Amino acid sequence: MEQNKVQELQDVVIRFSGDSGDGMQLTGTLFSNTSALLGNGISTFPDYPAEIRAPQGTVAGVSGFQVHFGDHRELTPGDYCDVLVVMNPAALKANRKWLKEGATVIIDGDSITEEHLKKAGFKTLDPIEELGLDAYNVVVPDITTMTREALKELGLDNKTVVKCKNMFALGICFWLFDRPEDYARRYLDNKFAKKNPAVAEANKRAIDAGYNYAANTHQFANHYRVAAASLEKGTYRTISGNVATAWGLCAAAEKAGLPLFCGSYPITPATVILEELAKRKDLGVKTVQAEDEIAGICTAIGAAYAGNFAVTTTSGPGLSLKSEALGLAVMTELPLVVVDVQRGGPSTGLPTKTEQSDLAQALYGRNGECPVVVMAASSPSDCFHFAFEAGRIAMEHMTPVILLTDGFIANGSEPWRIPSMKDYPTICPPIVETAPEDGFMPYVRNEKMVRGWAFPGKTGLEHRVGGLEKDAVKGSISTDPDNHQKMVRARAAKVALVAEDIPVQQVWGDEEGDLLVVGWGGTRGHLQNAVDELRSEGHRVSLCHFNYIHPLPHGVREIFARFKKIVVCELNEGQFAAYLRHELQEFRYEQYNKCEGQPFTVTELRRKFESLLK
């Protein structure tokens, strides 16, 4: 029959949305994991409400999960959705602007009541007409009613039954895109079967009911199939940026032969890193959930002094609180990794929304001449690599390193090819095991301007640390003006020499052209997609994306000189552009900035780049 026709697609974007209690994050995760197991490339974007508990049924309380899956690697979760699944009118209203032309909209018909419409701010009782959705394929199944009917024999209370409606919606999408139910059913068994088998059975039956509804009612013209992606051979798993960061830190500790210590205070959206590290006692990881941000970093500094690979995790407000102690780590020249998962600010700002506005704080937010290494990860999966790199640089160069991620890549996920640890280098901290015959001098430096790392408790290696300026050799307290000048320059030179130990800057695309797009951190996927689209149309556009920010890698000046125009794109009001103007003053920089708590869209980037090319 026509209704059973299967149409092949290259890629699809689905957005699941509802109240924060409707289980949209789980629904999206189960769908995306199922797609990943089928070999699709995926990129996801969980979008949480900024309020802890916004009133139910309101636009402020809408929670969403977007997944982009295709027959190739997906670099972004997609600009606009092919399918929008919403559980109430508020979710429909909040996501109307993200619909592609001709998209399919699935809304729970039971939610279209006068009460729900009023809470969502609709002026009429017809949300379809009010939002101008007549040209879209709108399907309005009574999801809640059908879920109740499917589960009526299980004897569960109404609240438990209604909670299963997200699985009914998942079943619809499984049929629509020819996905098997196996993974989702196994997940539900593992989560509920032992403690509450009736709940596991209810959710599985809800999936079946949704699947059968879509297959048998002919509400959809056809269903679709997306082929597996052609990926490099290996073992893959889906991973989020926060989990990848935690695992990268564990890998650095293993390669350094040192125990990992994390002292942190929970803060959105960084908390998952602390939680993931707390699970790794089997790897010798020690974690402390401190009473505040200052205690978190101070315990980490103490752990570094005692011979641990020390880490603290936070977001923008916490980085502000850690700034004085970060200066202490600079003064004592102890290795420390500070992971800052950026969110919208200032102050509490938008805790669950993404932003890149902590760069200036990372570069300059301390008293005195206080240089640190600043790095940034670009995608959920490469958080592993750059967490490892942050640990390597911190320990081998005896310096604090700030690793910037952001809410978008921290919460997002994608397939990750699990690496072999033999492919990662051994980390070689400058550990001093025995005292020299003429006595241990803690601030004697090697060719990289790095001092030795002597652990306490070893005879002959006793030395003094603290926040007061130290003698340039002996480490005793010194207030001598010439010594202070010497130490200020020595600490700066040590950080500058890190540029000799990182890759030369690369260009995506041709080495010269009309427009060079410049970005850093988590904007890589959107910028690369926009550049690729323009290049496919014959435009001379390339991308120069930064992961190593301070110090800048070698080769940047030469790259910039080969392009007629440079545009710096970032999710703030121009902090990296200002930094480049200071470091490389001979170039003129255009800017494209956005501060909405949302990632870029490829569409808006293309529009900007096309205007510059004219």
Your description of this structure?
- There is one protein chain.
- By secondary structure, this protein is of the alpha/beta class.
- Helices cover 36% and strands 20% of the residues.
- The protein has 22 helices and 21 strands.
- The strands form five sheets. A seven-stranded mixed sheet has the order 11-10-12-13-15-14-19. The protein has a six-stranded mixed sheet with strand order 3-4-2-5-6-7, sandwiched between helices. The chain has a four-stranded parallel sheet with strand order 18-17-20-21, sandwiched between helices.
- The two termini are 50 Å apart.
Primary descriptors:
single chain, alpha/beta, 22 helices
Helix-strand category: alpha/beta
Helix content: 25-40%
What summary fits the major beta sheet?
7 strands, mixed
Q: For the terminal residues, how far apart are their CA atoms?
A: 50 Å
State the strand order across the main sheet. Answer: 11-10-12-13-15-14-19
Count of helix runs: 22
Radius of gyration: 27 Å
What would you call the shape? globular
